[in-house]
From TrEMBL:
Pfam hit, one: PfkB
Annotated keywords: Kinase, Transferase
Species for this entry: Clostridium drakei
Domain called Carbohydrate kinase PfkB: residue spans: 7-293
Phylogenetic lineage: Bacteria, Bacillati, Bacillota, Clostridia, Eubacteriales
Highest taxon of source: Bacteria
GO biological process: phosphate-containing compound metabolic process
Protein name as catalogued: Carbohydrate kinase
Gene Ontology molecular function, alphabetical: kinase activity
InterPro entries (alphabetical): PfkB_dom, Ribo/fructo_kinase, Ribokinase-like
Amino acid sequence: MKLDKDKKVLVMGGLIVDKYIVTEQYPSRGEDVLITNSFNRVGGCTINVVSALNNLEIDAYPVSTVGGDENGNIIEKYLLEANIGKNCVMVEKDKNTGYCLVILDDTSERTFMTYKGCEEEFYYKLINCDLMKEIKFVYLTGYYLLGSFAAEILSFIKDIKELGASIMFDPGPLVDKIQLEILQLALDLCDIFIPNFNEIEKVKIKLNIVEGVSKWIEKNKIQYLIIKNGSKGVTAYKGNKKYEISAYNVKAIDTTGAGDSFAAGCIYGFLNDMEFEEILNIGSACGAMNTTFIGPNGKYGVKDIEKLIKEEIDNA
């Protein structure tokens, strides 16, 4: 699998710090449990997708404002050490960076509590005009549309789409909190809609969708709908054609960031002009690979993904 190096990706959604708490079981309300480990990771959908794209040797740029606080310093250090471009990252010295408490139990399930900081802010000046012309693909998370900058963000998405970029929209678990008109505009602008099962159900309720999925995506002019079902695999639609992809058989120890890694794998496939079923398989392999690491963004390469796909085929 080889990629045209001139194809650049913009990843929009804000940078935060994940503060992990590891415990044997999630406590019931009012109860107490022992913490077996705790640590920090630079996380959030944006950095998870960027890290996975870096693993696949794709030139990806996170878009975010970060604060001048301790969490902001952690992010800046991470970007430097991970060799991730800071071209579209702006530091606001007097503001706070967001963070997420991640409670990980022994079933590999994780529960989140998020504090929003200045990462929700967006300004056109974050993206250099010359770089904007080189962007071939944009990943947008719904988290970025929860704040007061949503209209500016979607105005930018409209402009960059007109320059020829493809748009992937991942609505996120708080999709039902996005303003109705903002959500509809995001769907109108996206080429690829990539929710998980719970998120698509929330979208159906919020938008009062009563027709079948194929008719709905056709009406909204969405080229591809990809529904992530975790360990149950993937259900996807291209026009009126439905695809079912089983999950890869790996020993999962942490599912954090798996959906983001899946999205990155799909972006890799789209940029390589692969057939849709192959795109879904690469995305699934990337998502599965990421569950074999503790933390939201593990290290792996294209050869690791190729090996996992071959093993899955051989064992079928």
